[in-house]
Amino acid sequence: ISTAGRFDLLQFFLELQISAAFADGSIHPSERNVLHKIARGLGFSSEQLERRLQMQEAAFRFQSQGGFHGQHQGQSSGGSWQQASQAD
Question: Segment Disordered: which positions (predicted)?
Fold first, then answer.
């Protein structure tokens, strides 16, 4: 199967696998090993996978702490940028 021109799909597939592995809030060593095998099969390096894992872990921590809205509880769920764009 040729992967030429399909980098976006391969990246999306890998990110789905990472999300599934991270569904319980952490990635176990066996899950990490499987992700490395999947990434290698898709043509991603270990370094590329580890960067994506770090981003996913950071995003999970941010969301579990309430994200942007948890830090700014006075804003509506739409956020101030939506209100500003509606005024334009």
Answer: 64-88
* Nearest of 30, 52, 54 to residue 42 by alpha carbon: 52
Q: ∠ CA(19), CA(28), CA(65), 5° rounding?
A: 55
- Domain ranges, ordered by start, for the chain: 26-69
Answer whether 48's CB lies under 8 Å from 39's CB. yes
Over residues 28-63, the pLDDT tens digits come to 999 999 999 999 999 999 999 999 999 988 888 888
Residue 75 banded pLDDT, cuts 50, 70, 90:
very low
Q: Which residue has the tokens 């290698």?
A: 40
Amino acid identity for residue 42 in this structure: L
Place of tokens 């804003």: 75
